[in-house]
Amino acid sequence: MLILLMAVLGCGTAEPEITVVQDQPAPDATALRVHLTIDDAPWQLERGVDLSPLSVTAVGAWNARARDALVARDVPASVFFVCDRMRPGDGSEDWSKAGFAVGNHTHSHQRLSKSDKEDWLLDVAKCNQAIRDRMDHRPTWIRYPYLDYGKNAAQQEA
After folding, report:
1. What whole-number distance in Å separates Cα of residue 7 and Cα of residue 24?
2. Neighbours of 60 (CB within 10 A)
3. How high is the pLDDT of residue 126?
4. How far apart, in whole angstroms, are the C-alpha atoms of residue 101 and residue 75?
5. Which is nearest to 26 in space by CA: 53, 54, 4, 46?
6. Residue range 54-67, pLDDT digits in tens
7. What is the pTM assigned to this prediction?
8. Distance between CA atoms of residues 36 and 5, nearest Å
9. What is the 3-state secondary structure (H, E, C) of 84-132?
10. Element (H or E) spanning 40, and its range?
11. pLDDT at res. 27
C-alpha cells in the first residue's frame, strides 16, 4: 500500500495525521513508502520568546541531526519554513542543499481565517522571497499554518 504520512508537529495539533494518498499494492509487498512533512521549521518556540545566539546554535544542531537521520535512512521529506524564524547559522539552507523539498509556511505563521486576503498573500510572498534569498530555491508548496484554509467557502475561494 502506498501511503503518505503527515507528521504535523506544532501548529496546534497534538496527534500526527495519517493521510492515505493511494490505496494500491506496492511493487514490493514488504515496502512501505513514506514522505514526511515537517512544519514550523527551522524551530518551534512559544510566541514572544527571543531566539538567542545560544538557541541558534541549538537549532542548527537539531536541524543537522534531523536532516542527517533522514538522509541516512533515505527518507524523503518536505520542510515548511516560517520565514521570520530563520536566522543565520540555524541550518535552514542545508535542508535544500541536502535535496529535501522546501516549502512556505508563511512569513509570520498567520491563520488565514483571522487575516484578510491581501495581508495573508503578502505574508506568503514575503516568505517566498526569504526562501529564494537564503536558499536560492523557489518554493513550490505552501502549508497553511494550523491547517487553516479559511473561515468559510468564500474566504477559501478568494
Report:
1. 22
2. 19
3. 97
4. 12
5. 4
6. 688 888 888 999 99
7. 0.76
8. 6
9. HHCCCCCCHHHHHHCCCEEEECCCCCCCHHHCCHHHHHHHHHHHHHHHH
10. strand 36-41
11. 58
Q: How many CB atoms lie within 10 A of CB 92?
A: 25
Distance CA 56, CA 90 (A): 5
Q: Under a CB-based contact definition with an 8 Å cutoff, are residues 97 and 71 in contact?
A: no
Q: Exposed/middle/buried for 51, CB within 10 Å: 0-12, 13-18, 19+? A: middle
| Cα gap 16→22, rounded to integer Å | 19
Task: Please choose, from the candidates 155, 6, 13, 10, the residue with its C-alpha nearest in 3D space to the C-alpha of residue 82.
Answer: 10
Residue with cell 499494492: 25
Q: Which three cell numbers stand for residue 123?
A: 505574508
Q: Residue 2 CB: number of other CB atoms within 10 A?
A: 15
26-42: per-residue pLDDT in tens? Answer: 556 567 778 899 999 99
What does the chain come to in residues? 158
